[in-house]
Amino acid sequence: MEHSGTFRITTLLLSKRIWVTILTSLGLALLYSMRTCLTMAIVKMTDSIKSNDSNTGYECKILNQSNHTGQYSWDQNLQSAILSAFFYGYTIFMIPGGIVADRIGGKRTVFYATLCSSIFTLITPLSVYINVYVLITVRILEGILECPFYQGMVVILKKWCAEFEVTTFVAISVSGAYLGTIISQPLTGYLSSFNIMHGWPLAFYVFGVVGLIWCIFWHLLVTEYPHENPYLSEIEKIFIKKYAVRPAIPQPIPWFRLLTYSPFYAICIGEMGVGLYLYIILSEMPTYLANALGVDITTNGISNAMPFIILFISLNLSGFLTDYLATTFSSKRFIRGLMMFVGCTMSMIFNFLIESAGCSAFWVVLFISSSMLFLGAAFSQLGCNLVETFPMHTGVAFGVMNTAANVQGIVAPYFAELFTHGHIHDRMHWQHMFNTASVILMICAILFAVFVRVSPPNWALVIDENSKLNA
After folding, report:
1. 62-71 core/surface letters (b: 16 or more CB in 10 A; e: else)
2. Whether the predicted pLDDT of 64 surpasses 50
3. 365-388 burial: b if 16+ Cβ within 10 Å, else e
4. What does the DSSP 8-state code read for residue 11?
5. Burial state string for 317-330 with b = 16 or more CB within 10 A and e = fewer than 16
6. Closest CA to 417 of 77, 179, 146
């Protein structure tokens, strides 16, 4: 291949385009920290949930250590509504958010999404003190205003990376979401243990302020197009111009063709399967560890971060591995399908092993982390596959795909409640939830592997926007 000699890891790490990608990843990390700190804080905010379980043999003897009295007596159903609220707004505005990103550009979309999310995070504790329904409203609004970030991220990355770096760049950026979870869970657990303002509001203030600071750096350092950036060398500008995914002149959105194209549904179905499992871990693992295994709030935060540390590493390594295998040994389509299938199969196996861990929080976290290791290999295939398949309408296509994925953020708390309502201290009911989610994940992986494509259909081919590149 013409570009095979140019793809060197050392050159990539020293480039300015990789630092734009890293800054994007850090922005997504902050958004996820702001989004997910509530899943940990709610454990401290609320009373221990009562269970209808009698002695089933699947309750841990250390359970009484997790009983505590919080400020609020929210039952499991209300907690599910609170945790789902963000995703109602996030999902509703996902497709319009993609249209916005395509129209106004990635830089402004990412900036305004982060700015608004930071502001709403700062006012979250106030909304809690006013009324639980004010809290739910704030979370819905935060979801609406945050959701265009992903689409803006993809829109700007395709302008900054070489075509053969797409998987690597998207994987690095998306991994920021899990870096945010790695940071937010232990930090929220630690801050919640303080006696200042009951502890839990501190996390919202910390993440909100850091988000505002990030916005300043993004505004000053990033430009929509590489040739506009004063910090980029002429050599790198020429490199990007030569190898970048070709920018497109805005065209009418071919809704009918997009929504009747089976490879597009393969991506959406893959996102739904992976999304359901990820959101179950993200939203329910703190409750699972606290109520089924009796883990205290500080240890809970650290334990909940471990699977996402593994996922963060796996996403980044899988991006490099996929690009390397696709350019060296086999077709990219085969590699995408293989990584998805093998990753989800191994993830399912480790989920089935959770039952054997008994009441050992160490082994439970180890099995879930191992599951995340392989899930990262699968997850890394989805977003980049969309970029290479729909280069002209990336923002809109990403909006539809992310809608499918983030509906699972609404579903996950209710999915968990379906299995654990009235049995929240019973490990076997939680195991049924893990097993069912794993089977769904496997079905989605098979469908993706069968129908995946890696090149655009004729109706999605790019019309070059040479005037932008030559400006």
Report:
1. ebeebeeeee
2. no
3. bbbbbbbbbbbbbbbbbbbbbbbb
4. H
5. bbbbbbbebbeeee
6. 77
Tokens standing for 434? Answer: 């893990």
Read off the pLDDT of residues 204-239 as tens digits, 9 standing for 90 and up.
Answer: 999 999 999 999 999 999 888 888 888 777 887 787
* Cα–Cα separations (whole angstroms), residue 137 to 34, 84, 133, 453: 16, 11, 6, 40
Report residue 249 as tokens: 């002149």
3-class SS of residue 261 = coil
Taking alpha carbons only, the member of 351, 371, 354, 349 closest to residue 293 is 354
For the record, the structure tokens of 229 come out as 């950036």
- Asked whether the beta carbons of 215 and 114 are under 8 A apart, the reply is yes
3-state helix, strand, coil in the chain (%, to 5): 80, 0, 20
Q: Nearest-CA neighbor of 308 among 87, 86, 28, 48?
A: 28
354-393 confidence digits (pLDDT tens) = 988 888 889 999 999 999 999 988 988 887 788 788 877 7
